[in-house]
Amino acid sequence: MIFIDDFLLLKKEAELQRLWKRGSYFQDNKIFDEVIAIINNIKSRGLEAVKEYSKKFDDYDLSLGLIASEEEIISQARLVPTDVYNALKHSAERIKRYHESVKIESFKYETEESESGFKWTPIENVGIYIPGGLAAYPSTILMTVIVADVAGVNNIYVCSKPNKGKINPYIASAILACNTKKVKVVKLSGIQAISSMALGLGIKKVDKIFGPGNDYVSLAKKYFFGEVAIDMMAGPSEILIVSDGKVNPSWIAWDFLSQAEHDKNAKTGLISNEIDFLNEVMERVKEYSLRVLNKHIVESSLQNSFFGFAPTLEDAISISNILAPEHLEIACENPEELFNKVQNAGTVFLGNLTCEPFGDYILGPSHVLPTSGSARYFSGINVYDFLKRTNFSRIKTKNALKNLLDASLIAEVEGFSAHKKSMLCRNE
């Protein structure tokens, strides 16, 4: 953990990127070479290569079944404690209501000569990757499958790592909580899962792939971008907290650690205009870090953390806009005015009660968010990401052509004689 009380130093973009060690992500040539080698083998040998990698990495024989049956999903879900299943259902209901409330409206613009606009249609086939290396993440099922279902996607393929040949009980329980018949659970993980979705090996070829993953998964998604669409390049989890120091420091310490426990590369930061508050939170982070379950992960990720002083809260937000964090907490008494100054953030939590973990599980918006500074140009996923916009135009009458034919002169300038004739012949 690093403490910075020099605001001018803190404000330098290079210093901020150094603090969060962002520069080297996705630039490991060794990993990239491994990813390319596996993908090339799968492209060459198809499902046989997928079967080999499934056995090697997941210890699963795909001849026993690529897609989990409905009976398996139900039987695995029964292994989950009732209170956990009820919590998943509660979250699912709230998430669904939130996304159903988003207005998806087509648009039409009319002039005397023509009408133009666009309509929205769902993507037909999507793939969703659910990480399963260190733990099960049923919440990611809720935060992706429900959004796809609300958007009207017909076929939703969920790839999840099998455990002793079975899908994880919590994954199965989350699938049931989504209450949709559109999902097929595919017993694949890693590069072989992304390749199978992108190439249509054993399942329908998908049109777009969603979901977070490790370096190998993210680089595989990057490789196939263009052949299929992807949601984004997901890196390590991040949180930046901006506080006026008028909140319980213990709360902020736990918020800090809630991101630090994600993985060893997670990024955490706190900026305040109160130095005593910064010191108090830092001490509590040190103390509480000894109580968490994953001490070794937290110990590593806290090497990517900083505590910074800013003269004003507006200055703190200006630093946040440079960092473009995945999660931004504005832990202040009156957060709305500061929120209006936020330009770059994946999602923002307003006020002292709204800690980031509530957003992970139950508030409504998806927790699949841009990381590594990509909140400058990406957004968290929502129903629009599962839709495509199709433009349309219609010229109303032949008489209306007269006011449009000067467009043929532009075609002539660009050297497209057929374009020109295509327009002019309609007025002959």
Please state how the strands of the largest beta sheet are arranged side by side.
Answer: 1-11-10-9-12-13
Q: How many independent structural domains?
A: 3
pLDDT < 50 runs, ≥5 residues: none
- Structural class comes to alpha/beta
Instruction: Return the CATH class of the largest domain.
Output: Alpha Beta
Protein name: Histidinol dehydrogenase
Family: Belongs to the histidinol dehydrogenase family.
GO molecular function, one term: histidinol dehydrogenase activity
Pfam family, one: Histidinol_dh
Explain what the structure shows.
The structure is a single chain. The protein has helices spanning 7-11, 13-19, 29-45, 47-58, 70-77, 82-100, 138-151, 169-178, 190-199, 215-224, 249-260, 275-288, 295-301, 313-323, 336-339, 356-361, 407-413, 417-424, and strands spanning 2-4, 107-110, 114-122, 125-130, 155-160, 183-186, 208-210, 229-230, 238-243, 267-272, 305-309, 327-331, 347-350, 387-395. The chain has 428 residues and is an alpha/beta fold. It has 3 domains: 2-22 and 235-365, Rossmann fold (3-Layer(aba) Sandwich); 29-230, 3-Layer(aba) Sandwich (Rossmann fold); 397-425, no CATH class. Strand 2 and strand 3 (114-122) form a beta hairpin. The longest helix is centred in the N-terminal third of the chain and has 19 residues, at 82-100. The chain is globular. The model has no long low-confidence stretch (mean pLDDT 94).
